[in-house]
């Protein structure tokens, strides 16, 4: 038996999220169907670093699986990509030791959220950015971003429909980069993230950018430990799982 | 009666091209449906600078129409965009004189064709680039590009299913720009273009880049005035109608 670690990129637009669901097109379901084909009908389960919601993308998501097929890693990449649809692409396949675990061994995760800050819409970026048609106060957003950095109980920034008990996480970096073409990238690196945490942080930063909240309000929101105090969850299409570090 | 000139951008991915066709989702059909709604059921025809094929995009396409509605131009933009789907966006609406014609008055057109020249695929650019997984000889392509510049009979570079008789056109500029992220942009500006001419030029340049043709062969291909001598038509998704000048 061999354990393989795969790095995969996908365009989340046409998926009902990462996790397998009956009668839905999901990333996990699509990959497991291909693996079943390669294993001549044998079911193969994959384990990812975490889920992504419908419409959320991955630049580099990681999953592992166990196989008894004796195929070199480079050929695995070719075999998978030749059977996968054009919105999923395997970047890398590496053999790992039997104790590697794509979820439990995560050291750090990076997400990026893209805003299109412009009066005008851009049809070509509608699936990959969140369009904000008004100007944003970047300085205020940067000040508020600092509040999230460090170890905090992120209960206020976590969707309520979750079974996770420990809501303490550490954010190492949270920065806002103004890119070319009216694009703002919110880059966040942390030890791990709660359900919809990045999108709720972004929604909260947006309210700061619009002047509806002050950076001081953000401190209060975290202290409340109550989801109802934070802002609306930002829409999925701006979010990309960028990198998983082990 | 007022004549309006509209500048429109669209993502061609989910359209069966620009021109209206029964039971197909087309750009023209979609815009005319919206105009009919605004005109309370009255049919309004639009006239564009030219057609684009299925999968081909527009950064700035231009069309005109005539209306008896008395609405300021700025409100026209809002009204149209609020009813159009999210893959079509009106950038500008201007009132023009009665003798303006979106097709006949074109002075110059610019198209851009994007290549993704990289061993690896990019799921996020699959609808907006043509993926070329091998290296290309850019110097040879640039030399070949020069051959197309100027006034020529472009019969060899035109799809055969066309009713156009005069196939003489002038190319003012044809350049290859190596962009960031493995993207090569082939920019072509001309007096006008024959059916699939840009995509056949790109296909021919690609064969030069791959070493299948020399720049000298390109001179011969033009002189033959026979489509069968030029290369395969490059796929639609790399092509964008960039700008129309009057």
Q: Main beta sheet of chain A, described?
A: 10 strands, mixed
Query: Uncertain spans of chain A, ≥5 residues at pLDDT below 50?
Result: none
Shape of chain A: globular
Structural class, judged by helices and strands of chain A? alpha+beta
Query: Largest interface by residue count?
Result: A-B, 17 and 17 residues
User: What is the terminal separation of chain A in angstroms?
Assistant: 22 Å
Written as H for each helix and E for each strand, in order along the chain, the element string of chain A is: EHEEHEEEHEEEHHE
At the fourth level of CATH, the homologous superfamily of the largest domain in chain A is Pseudouridine synthase I, catalytic domain, C-terminal subdomain
The number of distinct helices of chain A, counting runs of at least 4 residues, comes to: 5
Strand content of chain A: 25-35%
In round numbers, the mean pLDDT of chain A is 96
Which CATH class of the largest domain in chain A is shown?
Answer: Alpha Beta
CATH topology annotation of the largest domain in chain A: Alpha-Beta Plaits
Q: What is the annotated CATH architecture of the largest domain in chain A?
A: 2-Layer Sandwich
The gyration radius over C-alpha positions of chain A equals 19 Å
How many E strands of chain A?
A: 10
Give the tally of structural domains of chain A: 2
The portion of residues assigned to helices of chain A is: 10-25%
| Quaternary organisation | homodimer
Pfam families (chains A, B): PseudoU_synth_1
Subunit structure (chains A, B): Homodimer.
Keywords (chains A, B): Isomerase, tRNA processing
Enzyme class (chains A, B): isomerase
């Amino acid at each position: 038996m061999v354990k393989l670690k795969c790095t995969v990129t996908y365009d989340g637009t046409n998926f009902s999220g990462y996790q397998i669901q009956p009668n839905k097109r999901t990333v996990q379901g699509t990959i497991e169907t291909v693996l079943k084909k390669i294993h001549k009908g044998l079911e193969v389960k994959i384990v990812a670093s975490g889920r992504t919601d419908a419409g959320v993308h991955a630049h580099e998501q990681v999953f592992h699986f166990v196989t008894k097929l004796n195929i070199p890693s480079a050929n695995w990449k070719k075999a998978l990509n030749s059977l996968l649809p054009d919105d999923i692409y395997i970047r890398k396949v590496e053999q790992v030791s039997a104790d590697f675990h794509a979820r439990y061994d995560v050291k750090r995760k990076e997400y990026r959220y893209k805003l299109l800050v412009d009066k005008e819409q851009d049809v070509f970026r509608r699936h990959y950015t969140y369009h904000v048609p008004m100007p944003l106060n970047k300085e205020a957003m940067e000040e508020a971003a600092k509040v999230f950095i460090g170890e905090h109980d992120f209960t206020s920034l976590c969707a309520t429909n979750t079974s996770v008990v420990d809501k303490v996480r550490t954010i190492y970096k949270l920065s806002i980069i103004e890119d070319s073409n009216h694009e703002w990238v919110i880059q966040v690196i942390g030890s791990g993230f709660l359900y919809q945490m990045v999108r709720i942080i972004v929604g909260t930063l947006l309210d700061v950018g619009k002047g509806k909240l002050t950076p001081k309000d953000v401190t209060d929101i975290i202290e409340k430990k109550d989801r109802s105090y934070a802002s609306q969850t930002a829409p999925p299409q701006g979010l990309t799982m960028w990198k998983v570090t082990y």
